[in-house]
Specification:
Order of helices and strands of chain B: EHEHEHEHEHHHHH
Strand content of chain A: 15-25%
Strand order of the largest sheet of chain B: 2-1-3-4-5
CATH architecture of the largest domain in chain B: 3-Layer(aba) Sandwich
Number of helices of chain B: 9
Number of domains of chain B: 2
CATH class of the largest domain in chain B: Alpha Beta
Radius of gyration of chain A: 47 Å
Oligomer: heterodimer
CATH architecture of the largest domain in chain A: 2-Layer Sandwich
Strand order of the largest sheet of chain A: 2-1-5-4-3
Radius of gyration of chain B: 23 Å
Structural class of chain B: alpha/beta
Largest sheet of chain B: 5 strands, parallel
CATH superfamily of the largest domain in chain B: Response regulator
Number of strands of chain A: 17
Number of domains of chain A: 4
Number of strands of chain B: 5
Number of helices of chain A: 16
């Protein structure tokens, strides 16, 4: 109906227009309109009601209104009307409330029903206005669901999620926060966040809040927070401003991840690396000293022997002055060779003393750690690692770092060798096993290109290498380390594919007697 | 010094090997040298002397050579030479029965002293073996019954007790005993026991 017609209706005399106005009202009202008499019989039933309930006016007019109600309202309605007639007690009349309607197909829907009371021709009537709440309810449920989902996500997060005012007062505190920081939500909500901040870092929080106030988002900020029991936790923070509907910043949300363990692992790995590097250098130095000692010692021994032989030969010539003088000189030469020997011995002893710290160790643990270390930095090379460890092995008496260095060297060599082969099926197998009474054997086997006979023959000699940039002292160092442990290292012959090295070490019970 | 003694020198380093040879020869010893343990073993014929071997060699090393010498029943004292820092290895060699070890470089007296002791030890061993062999030969002359009587006497039993143990008369024991003394060339009972024990040691040593 257009506004002009509305004007026409308004301009009509009341008596003439009231009937048609009523009809228009009933016909056009978007909400349903129902009129019943004092006994609940339907007098008027608007077209909107037909849409709402699925009944046509013909099916409803003259019948009891409870037709449109599901139990229990259905059964109680007659009694309710009767009691209102007697006592005047109202539950809905003149008020309105949320009730449930029943459609013709017996399905139900939520609706807001407001009821007014009037009189026509001396008889009381009740006018009901029905507003369908289905869509509103559905929307509410949807919001509820998403709210609940969000709450669940926050609660089930492994990371601390909390919110706070710009003044640093806690507004929310999830389960992970309770677990990681030790305070319950009850203890924290409404209280200052500062209790979880170590005193020397309080200024940090001021700085964070200042930046949040300026609308800045802070990510991966690593710092320290304090547990209720006093121990410190290393956390990685992300802090974002929280805005209200107008976009005004009213607080901050904070996600904190506990990275304490990660930190410890990182620190430990770094320490181990440093130690290994240090030992590598010492080993290389020790190795060179040993090599020099050995190489120089042999000719020195020969010189000493030749001089002694010469002195004895001259002695047989008798006691003339020249022979005596020659003998004296040779004795002095002998002394000097022995002195050179002593110098080398001292040097070697010095290096050895600094290097070795032998203790009983579980060889399997050493292998596992060495693999982890060996893979650091070569993770980009795709190799399948298999450990085949005999868990029944007795401890070995070793310098852990040195033996790990041996394994590390073998693992690295294997991986680098395999890097040259095609990616599919690269495999590195580390195994431990008993090797006769008193010994264990570790094997490092790869399925790489293997070693030529020529290289295999001089494998443990210094400056033997297949690598373009290799020094060729790795296996040489391995060899001397293993021998210093009273063990042996060798290349297994007749391996079908690749290369396999075996390291044999005496058990702690065996080695103790010999050192 | 016995003219038969030979000093066997094994070292893969020709300088060391030849210089030791020169030194030993200057002291009047007969020397044979080898570049490897295997070369020595391949050439071995039983003779008296001693063996000087380097501990670290390619192929069979000094410790393995020692094991092999023992396994083959080669009765020759072994002196092991070590480089610096090989003390634990040297200790193992000693435990495995090496007579001595020399740390390189050594002075001539250390080497010659060690060689002298080794030869002396070898001689003693050979003397003992000769005595034992002779005793065993004598023992073989006894009848089974005489062996039983001898066992009783070596065990320190009197004629009476021995007679009781063997179920014969003390008089018979007396007769056996005189015959045993005669066969074994023993002048006294203590002489007899010594010979019997020497033969036993030989038998025990071979086991």
């Amino acid at each position: 109906m257009n506004p002009r017609e509305w004007c026409a209706i308004a301009a009509m005399p009341v008596n003439a227009t009231s009937n048609s106005l009523f009809n228009v009202l009933i016909a056009t009202a978007v909400d349903g309109i129902v009129v019943i008499d004092a006994h609940g019989m339907v007098q008027t039933y608007s077209p909107a009601c037909e849409r709402l309930f699925g009944y046509s006016a013909d099916e409803v007019i003259g019948r009891n209104i409870k037709l449109l109600m599901p139990p229990p309202f259905h059964d109680g309605h007659d009694g309710y009307l009767a009691s209102y007639r007697c006592t005047g007690e109202r539950r809905i009349i003149g008020i309105g409330r949320e009730v449930v309607g029943r459609r013709k197909d017996q399905t139900t829907f939520p609706m807001y029903l407001s009821v007014g009371e009037g009189e026509v021709g001396g008889q009381p009537i009740f006018v009901g206005i029905i507003h369908d709440l289905s869509r509103l309810h559905a929307l509410e449920r949807k919001h509820e669901r998403s709210d609940r989902l969000l709450a669940n996500i926050v609660e089930s997060s492994d990371d601390v999620i909390l919110s706070k005012t710009l003044g640093g007062v806690v507004m929310s505190w999830n389960a992970a926060a309770e677990r990681i920081l030790g305070y319950t939500a009850n203890e924290m909500i409404g209280n200052p966040i500062s209790v979880i901040i170590p005193p020397d870092r309080l200024s940090e929080e001021d700085d964070i809040l200042r930046r949040v106030r300026a609308g800045e988002r802070i990510t991966n900020y690593e710092t320290v927070r304090r547990h209720k029991d006093g121990h410190d936790i290393i956390v990685s923070l992300s802090v974002s401003p929280v805005r209200d509907a107008d976009g005004t910043i009213v607080g901050a949300s904070k996600i904190a991840r506990d990275v304490t363990e990660q930190h410890k692992a990182k620190t430990k790995a770094a320490e181990l690396q440093v130690e290994l590097l240090h030992v590598s250098r010492l080993s290389a130095m020790g190795q060179m000293t040993a090599a020099i000692a050995h190489e120089v010692n042999q000719p020195l021994t020969a010189i000493a022997n030749y001089i002694s032989a010469a002195r004895r030969t001259i002695s047989s010539l008798g006691d003339d002055a020249t022979a005596v003088r020659a003998r004296e000189l040779m004795e002095k030469a002998s002394e000097q060779t022995l002195r050179a020997g002593a110098i080398i011995r001292n040097l070697r002893d010095f290096v050895e003393k600094r290097e070795s710290r032998h203790a009983p160790h579980d060889i399997n643990k050493i292998v596992a750690e060495a693999v982890a270390l060996g893979l650091a930095g070569v993770a980009h090379i795709d190799v399948n690692i298999r450990l085949d460890l005999d868990s029944t092995l007795a401890p070995v008496l070793i310098d852990k770092i040195q033996i790990q260095q041996v394994l590390l060297n073998l693992v690295r060599n294997s991986i680098e060798a395999m890097a040259a082969t095609k990616e599919q099926g690269r495999e590195l197998v580390l195994s431990t096993a008993s090797d006769g009474p008193g010994f264990v054997a570790m094997t490092v086997a790869d399925n790489g290109p293997g070693l030529s006979d020529e290289v295999a023959a001089r494998l443990f000699q210094p400056f033997t290498t297949t690598k373009e940039q290799g020094m060729g002292i790795g296996l040489n160092i391995c060899h001397s380390i293993v021998e210093d442990h009273g063990g042996r290292i060798w290349l297994l012959p007749d391996v079908r594919k690749g290369a396999a090295f075996r390291v044999r070490l005496p058990l702690a019970s065996q080695a103790e007697g010999s050192t | 010094m016995s003219t038969e003694d030979v000093i066997f020198v094994i070292d893969d380093d020709p300088g060391v090997r030849e210089s030791i040879r020169a030194l030993l020869e200057s002291a009047g010893y007969k020397v044979r040298d080898f570049a490897s343990a295997n070369a020595f073993l391949a050439d071995w014929l039983p003779r008296s002397g001693c063996l000087i071997s380097d501990i670290r060699m390619p192929g069979m090393d000094g410790l393995e050579l020692q094991e092999e010498v023992a396994r083959r029943g080669i009765a020759i004292p072994v002196i092991i030479m070590t480089g610096h820092g090989d003390v634990p290895l040297a200790v193992r060699a000693m435990k495995a029965g090496a007579m001595d070890f020399l740390e390189k470089p050594f002075d001539d007296e250390a080497l010659l002293g060690s060689v002298r002791r080794a030869l002396e030890l070898g001689r003693q061993k050979q003397d003992q073996m000769a005595v034992a062999r002779a005793a065993q030969n004598l023992l073989a002359l006894l009848t089974p019954r005489e062996r039983h009587v001898l066992d009783q006497l070596v065990a320190g039993r009197s004629n009476k007790v021995a007679a009781y143990e063997l179920g014969i008369s003390p008089r018979t024991i007396e007769i056996h005993r005189a015959r045993i003394m005669d066969k074994m060339n023993a002048r006294s009972l203590s002489d007899l026991v010594r010979t019997a024990l020497a033969a036993e040691r030989m038998a025990g040593g071979a086991a």
